[in-house]
Structures are given as structure tokens and as C-alpha cells.
Amino acid sequence: MRALVLDQNTNGGRGASCLTLTDTTPPACSSEQFLVGVVAAAIAPFDVAVCYRNEQALNDFTHSVPFVPGRVFSGIVEQNGLSTRTFERGDSVIGFLSSNVKNGAFAEFVPIQSEHLVKKPPSLPDESCVAVVSHGFVGHIAIHQNLRLLKDETLLVLNAAHLAGHLAVQLALGIGCKVFVTSQTAEDVLFFDDIRLHKNLRVIGLNEKVVDVLMEETGGLGCDCILDFTYSHQRSQYVVPSYSSILSDREIISALAVHGRWATTNHHLELFPTETKALHLKGATVSFICEHSWILPGTKQGKVLHIMQYLLEQLERNVLRLKPARVFGLERYEEALAAAEDLNNVVFKMETNRSFV
């Protein structure tokens, strides 16, 4: 089989220079695992961080190299273990691998336990399924677990002009919330063209002051929840640090309502004593969005499968809309990583004329 392998013999290289497309034998399948022939695999921001040899991502979530990256995939069950019958050979499935597995999804075959698989809806294309699970999972846990968003509450989403933010906005609108999103470029405004006519969505313009708009729209009360997507695992900095409408920590706190909730992907967050005091006086909270905390322990696996099934059902019912995916073969991994670095919807598509025997 073919697989993208992240090796240590790269002399400190970055990006695609760290990967090698190799021919190797398919991984062994234990008695409790399925061997799945991969059809499509999503390239998430964490996958890009790993492939770019982001040392923090490697040290925090993965084992030592060499290994095959990739977590979310669709495929067909080719072989099942002796002690498991949850799926049969030929079933189409969606899988979500843990961040520390050695045999990832950027390969033609992957071994996986049934606890990490759900059936793929037959009416949906593989590219859409892996994208909605990979990126929608982050938005779902942010909306429903970190913020516990309720109907008629107000939500501000910072840096929402990428797939995870786009899906999080749709999930919030589906609950019945009033949603504000920031825009820093004309491209960001166009990004929400497919949903911007929704009566509860307000795209804050390029020349508008975010806090002023929020206070005017909420009658001076502030936002119930703020979802901050301005940090990416791909780099040890903000995705777009120069944007004037990305709020400072002080401005975020000032925009929060009493008993407001703030969820962020920025694990380098540092607050001054005056800022923590402002949070205290408002009775507000801050939490961190980390999808790995749901996958690595194994104790949340039932909820993970429920979220995966929910996202696929919403996509099948056309409640969630996806941006078109850019599809690449494994041999074009350099182009794929470059596209995924800009937080696009990028998917690896595998050849179908292959055999694991």
C-alpha cells in the first residue's frame, strides 16, 4: 500500500519536506480491529501542524517519528477481527482516529477499533463526510460543550472565515441564536455569502468597530458568548495577527455580557490581573477548545460517535452546508498541505483499484 510517512531523517525540514510517499505492507489488524480501505481523508489544521513538524503538536499529542499522520477518513471495511462483528466487509464507514496513533489515515489502509467508526450515509460523497466530521467536530464541542449555547442567546465568532468557523456559525443559527461574525477582508465577507441572508446573522463590516456594533445591537448588554478561532495549531502565533478587527483580550472581556462565556483555541492565553478582575466582576468564564481531550482518553467515545452521527445527519438533511472541497491524490501532498495551511477544505482522495492482499 501507499502511505505518507513523517520521518525523522529530514534535517529539520518543514512542511512537505518532512513527508515521504512510500510503498509499504498494510498494517496488521488485531482481533478487535477492522482493516479499512481509505477512500478519502480530511486534512485538518492539527494534521498540518504535525506535517510541518510543529514541535509543540508533536510533543503534546503524538509519539516519536516515523508515523503516518491523518485522523478523519472515510473508507470501506476490507477485513474484520475475529472478536468483532459490528461492521461487515464492504460496509462504508467514517472513522476518527486518536491523535497519537502510529498508523494514520494518510494511507490506503488503516486499522481501527469499532469504537471509532460510524456508518457513512450512502447518499453523501466521501469528501463531504470527512470534512464535516473533521471541522464540524471542533465547532460542535465549542458550541454545545464549551459555551453550552441556548436559544435566543447572542454569539460573537472571531475569525470565522474558515470551515470550522463556518460550520460553528451554522450550528449556532440552527439553535436559534443571534450570531455576529467579524470580517477582516473582502474575501471574508464573501465567505458567508451562502448564509449571510439568514435573519439572525450579522456580518460586521470591514470599517465597523466590533465592540460598538455589539453594544448597539444588544442594547449595551454585551454578548452572551464569544467564540475565538483566532489561534491555529499550524503556527505558534495568531493566524492573522495584523487584523485590526481581531479583538484584544481586554476588548473581548468588555464585549461579554454579565455571566458571559468565552471559548478560545488560544492555549497561550495570558490575562493581566485587571482583566481577570473584570471577568470576576462579571461572573464570566473562559474555557479552552481542545478536540484532543475528547479523543485521547477514550472515556468520551460514546459522545464522539454521537457527534459524528449528528453532523452527518445534519449534512444529509442539508441543514449544514459545506464549502467545496479541494481534492488531491497522495502524490500531490505538497500542493495539498499548502492549500490546507490557509484553512481551506482540503481532502486526500485515494485510488480505488487497490488490494490489501
How does this model look, in words?
This protein is of the alpha/beta class and 357 residues long. The protein is 30% helix and 23% strand. It has eleven helices and 15 strands. The chain has helices at 45-51, 55-61, 126-146, 163-175, 186-191, 210-217, 249-255, 273-282, 292-295, 301-316, 333-340, and strands spanning 2-6, 19-23, 33-42, 72-80, 92-96, 109-113, 117-119, 154-158, 178-182, 201-204, 223-228, 256-264, 285-288, 326-328, 346-349. The strands form three sheets. Strands 3, 4, 5, 6, 7, 14 and 15 form a seven-stranded mixed sheet that branches. Strands 10-9-8-11-12-13 form a six-stranded parallel sheet, sandwiched between helices. Strands 1-2 form a two-stranded antiparallel ribbon. Helix 8 (273-282) links the parallel strand 12 and strand 13. The radius of gyration is 21 Å and the shape is elongated. The termini are close together. The model is unreliable at 233-245 (pLDDT under 50).
Task: Indicate the topology.
Elements: E1 2-6, E2 19-23, E3 33-42, H1 45-51, H2 55-61, E4 72-80, E5 92-96, E6 109-113, E7 117-119, H3 126-146, E8 154-158, H4 163-175, E9 178-182, H5 186-191, E10 201-204, H6 210-217, E11 223-228, H7 249-255, E12 256-264, H8 273-282, E13 285-288, H9 292-295, H10 301-316, E14 326-328, H11 333-340, E15 346-349
Parallel strand pairs: 8-9, 8-11, 9-10, 11-12, 12-13, 14-15
Antiparallel strand pairs: 1-2, 3-4, 3-6, 3-15, 4-5, 5-7
Helix pairs in contact: 3-4, 3-10
